[in-house]
Amino acid sequence: MQLLLDPGIPSGKLWERYQRSRVQRRPSGAVPCISGACMLTTRDMIDQMGLLDEGFDFYYEDVEWCHRTWQHQRQVAYIAEAVIVHLGDQSLSKVKVWAKQSEYRSALRYFRQYYGITYAQERWLWRITVLSFLLRGLVFLLLAVVQRRDTYARVYLYLWHWLLQQPPQRQSHEQSPI
Questions:
Q1: If both were cysteines, with which of 9, 45, 81, 82 could 41 make a disulfide (CB 3.0 to 4.6 Å apart)?
Q2: Backbone angles phi, psi at 144, to 5 degrees
Q3: Segment (H or E) for 78
């Protein structure tokens, strides 16, 4: 769904509003994952499961930790009554190439590690991401021309070019189709 909404609204504001409205209506209870921006846990949980995996550069360390929580037969919960102010992405107030690259690599690592994605699935994910970066770059380029101001066009077109040079490679243990 995000792929369909975000290219036309490059800042992702429509997607963010949709997600925020879903969260605002959600009751307290078990959820698959929460943001690492605000996690509360016990020392016992940390001793049992370990810390966040530093092998994930950016974005997926909290997703992976929640995954491990469920694997240890523990719950991850959302508390609707809690009020947290998170000024999201203050460290990334501008689109940072390295952050987007890291997010892509971390997502691949996570899905390889826990879901054993196949070469075909990884290639599909790669194509979708290539298309997303290209569409965002083109929309930002159009906005730059129309509004006569600098946008993130160069960043996303750079990311698109970078990703074209990162096609999935077959793992040595995978067999080629006959």
A1: 45
A2: -65, -40
A3: strand 77-78
Apex 16 CA angle, 163 and 12, nearest 5:
40
Distance CA 29, CA 76 (A): 8
**CA 70 to CA 32: how far, in whole Å?**
8
Structural contact between residues 115 and 156, judged by C-beta atoms closer than 8 angstroms: no
In contact, 6 and 152? CB cutoff 8 Å: no
Q: Go through the chain and tell me how many residues it has.
A: 178
The confidence score (pLDDT) of residue 50 equals: 92
> How many Cα atoms within 13 Å fall on the side-chain side of residue 137?
17
Specify the DSSP element, H or E, that contains 129.
Answer: helix 119-147
Q: pLDDT tens digits for 128-161?
A: 999 989 998 998 899 889 988 877 888 889 999 9
CA 173 from centroid of its chain's CA atoms: 27
Q: Which residue has the tokens 């969260």?
A: 23
pLDDT at 74: 92
Is the pLDDT confidence value at 1 over 50? no
Place of tokens 């971390």: 106
> How far apart (Å, rounded) are the C-alpha atoms in residues 81 and 91?
27
Q: Determine the pLDDT at residue 24.
A: 77
